[in-house]
Design a protein that fits this description.
The complex is a heterodimer of chains A (113) and B (110). The N and C termini of chain A lie far apart (37 Å). Chain A has strands at residues 5-7, 10-13, 19-24, 31-37, 43-50, 53-57, 64-68, 74-78, 87-94, 103-104, 108-112. Chain A has no helices and eleven strands. Chain B is mainly beta and 110 residues long. Chain B is globular, with a radius of gyration of 13 Å. Classes of the chains: A mainly beta (113), B mainly beta (110).
């Protein structure tokens, strides 16, 4: 099976712009989680989607949003970008929530100038 | 807030030596997982240990779990240059999300 794919891999934006990141989970996986990772930090949970429904959301402002499509592909959107949004955004898929092992994509490296 | 806290933050050892990393957590859990991340890339699942297990092995990896002390350790034996990476523990204190530590950066010197 193909692994989790994320597009784009690298992105440079300026403050105030918005960005959309995409994640395609492993075939058959219906749960997708998003994380933000900044240098020297662990993973900060953004949100999880399962069957097109957001199951849970982390402690991030409303500028961060996401959705999941019927084919389980997921997108996350960040509006009004700030310098502090520069990070590696990771997507992880599972067959179902709490299926224990998460499979991660390579991430999207977002730089906000 | 972070549930898992890895210790040490960074570890540098010679190739062939053993590396031990620790993870502490605050609330009761169902299981604890360890992941590896090579520089700036996605994470790879290494091993999962359930709360009713005390020790688990996978190749050169040995994980222990002490629920009374709310801590876990990851031992990598006979380290190799390819083991250079950051190692994270993740716990599941709630039904909705894993909680991740800040990681231990392991450097294997040739």
């Amino acid at each position: 099976k193909a692994g989790v794919t994320q597009t784009p891999r690298y992105l440079i934006k300026t403050r105030g712009q918005q960005v959309t990141l995409s994640c395609s989970p492993i075939s058959g996986h219906r749960s997708v989680s998003w994380y933000q990772q900044t240098p020297g930090q662990g993973l900060q949970f953004l949100f999880e989607y399962f069957s097109e429904t957001q199951r849970n959301k982390g402690n991030f402002p409303g500028r961060f949003s996401g959705r999941q499509f019927s084919n389980s592909r997921s997108e996350m959107n960040v509006s009004t970008l700030e310098l502090g949004d520069s990070a590696l955004y990771l997507c992880a898929s599972q067959e179902a929530p709490r299926n224990n092992e998460q499979f991660f994509g390579p991430g999207t490296r977002l730089t906000v100038l | 807030s972070q549930q898992g806290e890895e210790d040490p933050q960074a570890l540098s050892i010679q190739e062939g030596e053993n590396a031990t990393m620790n993870c502490s957590y605050k609330t009761s859990i169902n299981n604890l997982q360890w992941y590896r991340q090579n520089s700036g890339r996605g994470l790879v699942h290494l091993i999962l240990i359930r709360s009713n297990e005390r020790e688990k092995h996978s190749g050169r990896l040995r994980v222990t779990l002490d629920t009374s002390k709310k801590s876990s350790s990851l031992l990598i034996t006979a380290s190799r240059a390819a083991d250079t990476a950051s190692y994270f523990c993740a716990t599941d204190p709630s039904d909705y999300q894993l909680i991740w530590g800040a990681g231990t950066k392991l450097i294997i010197k040739p």
